[in-house]
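INFO batch 0412 | record 1 of 1 | parsing
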Amino acid sequence: MNTKQLLHWRVVAASVCGTSHVKTEQLCQDAHHWQVLPDNVLVAAVADGAGSASLGKVGAMIATETAIENISMQDVTKHGLADDEFVRSLLTAAMVAAKKAVEEEAVACGRQLTDLATTLIIMVATPEGAAVAQIGDGVAVAKDFQGNLIALTMPDSGEYINETTFLTSDDAIDTAQLRLWRQPIVNIGLLTDGLQMLAINMAVGAPHKPFFLPLFDFVADAEDKSVAKEQLVKFLKSERITQRTDDDLTLVLAVLHD
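INFO prediction complete | emitting tokens
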């Protein structure tokens, strides 16, 4: 018997307002959404509304929810996910749907599309591997059975510092990062750019083990999801984090457990 079939995803996720937005009494511009589909397929998305976008939070929420809803409506199975072309089309369709939904919201609100500018990362994961689409900054990470951390994506910071591509950009879909990882995994992590300087060694493009490994262990031990989410929120609001970043923070963590 394949023991991997006995494993299920445990997910703990949170988005919290950065200290800079707390001081100015602004809303958290980040959003996340996830779902475990039949056949033990995990789909998750995170987004970071642009700081300059007055409705960035709305854009981020619509993007993540639409992307996950679009994938969940497809017939997604492990067998289907073994086909590279299917996976690419699945992720591309989810990005297109998210972009269209944001565009429609802008029209409905009578606002400029740039008012809803947001990044977007979408991941589809099974015990056999993961696939990620990413527009803009943020990071997607996986851990294998040997304890190795793999950066599935890296931040897209654009041509200039503090510049990034947004879902609302004309070339967003064409320039998106698409990555398929065809090796067994036990953990995944998605995060927005508020955490990327803590979580990634940007010089070598590698995930920071002291950041991820304790968090993955935390999720593995988290039997009560509501308590675990409270603890994750507390961690993201802790001085240890806020001393190093004042941006909004989103973290989606998942572990396979029996």
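INFO post-check: The chain is about 35% helix and 25% strand.
INFO record closed
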